[in-house]
Amino acid sequence: MDTFEKLAYQKGYKFIAGIDEAGRGPLAGPVVAAAVVFPPDYKNKQINDSKKLSARRREELYEVINKDAISVGVGTADADIIDRINILQASLQSMREAVLELSIPPDFLLVDGLHKIPMLTPQNALVKGDALSVSIAAASIIAKVSRDRIMEMYHRQFPQYNFLQNKGYGTKEHRAALLEFGMCKIHRRSFHLKNVDRNQTSLDLSKK
């Protein structure tokens, strides 16, 4: 899990950040990105792709990562930004923000996915990077836990959608709530949903 970090160190880079995001697929809420810089030769076999971990384990590792990392940064792009510039660009924007939030500017980036971040820092984009790099895996955990906490906050404001459980994803229950209550301010109006009129303030999820 540290092969790509080692390669970067061998090239003379000193501060390597792993970057990942959470929340590209939901119907509501922000996309949240994180950047994590570990000390050289850092290893932790417990850190893995956040999707492979239980919520409790992610919370535990969230604390470990914040303790062990040299620096951690988090960036967000809300639903209105997603609607304005599309989810890919919003994800990249949140990643850039996460890097800029680091207390120590990294000199090399390991980015999860196909696309590099729009900044001049040397970087490598890795498909399924959260399974290849401990830094990216750690960023995936920070991003996921951070986003879940945001959605839990929104649940208190909009309990009718049960964001506490679905975190904004298009579950059957969430879609039923959309049919009954329409969209709230954190729903992504630009997302292409079956039988949805995106020009309306509420969603039509009934079959036509």
The CATH class turns out to be Alpha Beta
Instruction: Tell me the fraction of residues in β-strands, as a range.
Output: 5-15%
The helix-and-strand class reads alpha/beta
Radius of gyration using CA atoms only: 18 Å
Name of the CATH homologous superfamily: Ribonuclease H-like superfamily/Ribonuclease H
* Biggest β-sheet: strands ordered side by side in the sheet: 3-2-1-4-5
Assembly state (oligomeric): single chain
CATH topology: Nucleotidyltransferase, domain 5
CATH architecture: 2-Layer Sandwich
- The percentage helix is 25-40%
| Mean pLDDT rating | 91
Give the overall form.
globular
* End-to-end Cα distance: 49 Å
Main sheet specs: 5 strands, mixed
Tally of individual helices: 7
Number of strands: 5
Number of spatially distinct domains: 1
Provide a descriptive summary of the structure in words.
- The chain has 208 residues and is α/β, with parallel strands linked by helices.
- The chain has one domain (3-152): Ribonuclease H-like superfamily/Ribonuclease H (Nucleotidyltransferase, domain 5).
- Helix content is 39%, strand content 14%.
- It contains seven helices and five strands, in the order αββαβααββααα.
- The chain has helices at 3-10, 55-68, 79-85, 87-100, 134-157, 163-166, 172-181; strands spanning 16-22, 31-37, 71-77, 108-112, 123-126.
- It has a five-stranded mixed β-sheet.
- Strand 1 (16-22) and strand 2 form a beta hairpin.
- It is globular.
